[in-house]
Design goal:
Helix content is 45%, strand content 12%. The protein is an alpha+beta fold and 512 residues long. It has one domain: Creatine Kinase, Chain A, domain 2 (2-Layer Sandwich). α2 packs across α11, α7 runs parallel beside α13 and α12 crosses α14. It starts with a helix and ends in a 10-residue tail after the last helix. GO terms for molecular function: ligase activity, forming carbon-nitrogen bonds. This is Glutamate--cysteine ligase. It comes from Halogranum salarium B-1.
Length: 512
């Protein structure tokens, strides 16, 4: 496999970057023409969802309490059996739902599909002594390995670095082997400085990604700018990764310092620091506002070309007409990003991919974020909500403040009556009311809309997030005399045990 993969990497590195860029520019003109012709318009809004997991030892076969919840590699055949897709690390598995109309039936279909497929996957992996976990960052490495060893493992195949625990995704392997690739890829976070020869450290993190497709593509900039402004407040509700695997912390740092200086969502920092290591400009970044739909296309074209992958155009799909642009979009990393796709002209779509939210403790919490985001995308433009006038710099600071401090981050918001507030009660009263309004506008009953939003409202009422739950668990264990590594491991095992009881049928609000 290494030989074949190294050869594929060499093929990628032989692609002429100038030709790749020129092809992307030509594809952009195709997309712009189709946008003008209305090809990307639809008669209704549509929602979709990506859901990432990692696998751990469930203790069924090992019988060793110390091995419980340690990271596991998912056999490729297993991924095929459960109908999930490979992600960056061998421990990862990703589910993508079928797009559905944004109405009560479509939302129910999204939730039912997640539950049906995940339930079947859990049954299948259980026979292998494995469990899929919904979480923002793993902290217990595979049995017999440190996190540093797992993330840094690689082999040199005649000058090509191949990460030993990375999926055979040529694009990611190519990142470490280009002529301008750095010697190492770096995690930089409070009390963590870690270097690896490949982008494998990015596989520490997992997320959920709601998609929202507006009916009229020309409206994308309006929806996009609202999505930029809700990114901070929604992230503040969803934070879930205050701790790293213990062996990644700097030597000599004490447990109290780690606890005091930990950010609530290190996932954001991992993604940015690792992938921005290799580029002259920040490719993983908080996006600026859009003025026109054409600008959204141009941004993908103008983005720094990282890996000019070879492109095959067989003409069988509609999006083959802009295949290079679509390929380039694969390394267009923004926390909110526009997407243009569709296998046929009738399925052509312009949508927003919302990437700030980490994987959540339960399915119901995950669907709550999908529903809330879709509801906000429906309501805020319809109501011409004044938060659209909030300075972009404030929206950006909201996002990074949420990364650091979660619900304690002092999110700034312009309420429906036009006054600015940092009172979290006022912020979320307005935000969640508009999410609910968007759901009822899409046809949900009041009771159904409130059910979708209830897990998020519960977090506001209790002033409690998954990150704060993890902090409490670690702090309690430190108080009882555990060292940092034991405290983080104990917290992670408790998280996974709680999740095993509530993943399919409960919510984070049930975690007491």
């Amino acid at each position: 496999m290494s030989k074949d993969l190294a050869g594929a990497v060499r093929d990628v590195l032989s692609v002429d970057i100038e030709t790749f860029r020129a092809d992307a520019e030509a594809d952009a003109e195709v997309v712009k023409k189709e946008l003008r012709d209305g090809t990307f318009d639809n008669h209704q809004s549509i929602v979709g969802f990506e859901y990432e997991f990692y696998a751990v030892d469930d203790g069924r076969w090992s019988g060793d309490e110390d091995l419980a919840c340690s990271l596991m590699r998912v056999p490729r055949r297993m991924l095929e059996l459960i109908g999930f897709e490979k992600e960056l690390g061998l421990h990862n598995a990703e589910m993508s739902t079928s797009p559905q109309p944004f109405n009560p039936h479509g939302l129910r279909a999204q939730e039912s599909e997640v539950l049906a497929r995940l339930s079947a996957a859990l049954d299948c992996t259980r026979s292998e002594g494995m469990r899929l976990v919904s979480d923002a960052m793993w902290t217990i490495p595979p049995a017999g390995e440190t996190a540093g060893e797992y993330l840094g493992g690689s082999v040199d195949d005649d000058g090509i670095d191949i990460a030993t625990n990375m999926s055979d995704a040529v694009r990611y392997h190519a990142m470490a082997n280009g002529p301008d690739a750095p010697e190492t890829f770096t995690i930089e976070a409070p009390n963590v400085s870690y270097d690896a020869p490949t982008v494998m450290p990015e596989s520490l993190i997992t997320s959920i990604q709601p998609h929202y497709q507006m009916s009229h593509a020309a409206d994308l900039p309006t929806h996009f700018n609202y999505a930029v402004r809700v990114a901070g407040p929604l992230l503040a509700l969803g934070v879930n990764s205050p701790f790293f695997p213990p062996d990644l912390y700097d030597d000599g740092v004490d447990a109290e310092t780690v606890l005091a200086e930990a950010w609530d969502e290190h996932r954001v920092r991992v993604f940015e620091s690792v992938l921005n290591t290799a580029t002259e400009v920040d490719k993983v970044a908080f996006p600026r506002d859009l003025e026109t739909i054409e600008e959204a296309v141009d941004r993908v074209v103008d983005d720094e070309t990282f890996v000019p992958m070879p492109v095959t155009r067989n003409g069988e799909r509609f999006d083959d007409t802009f295949a290079t642009l679509r390929m380039k979009h694969g390394t267009y990393w923004r926390w909110v990003r526009p997407v243009f796709g569709g296998s046929s002209r009738s399925s052509a779509n312009a949508r927003i991919e919302f990437r700030p939210i980490p994987a959540q403790p339960t399915v119901r919490d995950s669907i709550a974020f999908q529903a809330a985001f879709a509801g906000l995308m429906e309501s805020l433009p319809q109501r011409q909500h004044p938060v659209a006038d909030m300075d972009w710099e404030v929206a950006r600071e909201n996002f990074y403040a949420a990364m650091r401090d979660g619900l304690d981050s002092g999110q700034r918001w312009i309420a429906n009556d036009g006054h600015e507030t940092t009172n979290p009660v006022e912020v979320y009263e307005d935000l969640l009311a508009h999410a609910t309004d968007g759901l009822t506008s899409a046809g949900c009953s009041d009771a159904e809309a409130e059910r979708y939003i209830a897990p998020l409202q519960a977090r506001v009422d209790a002033a409690r997030t998954p990150a704060s739950w993890k902090r409490e668990e670690v702090e309690s264990r430190l108080t009882d005399g555990d060292d940092l590594a034991t405290a983080i491991t104990g917290m992670q095992q408790a998280y996974i045990r709680k999740q095993s009881e509530t993943l399919l049928d409960g919510s984070f609000a049930d975690w007491v």
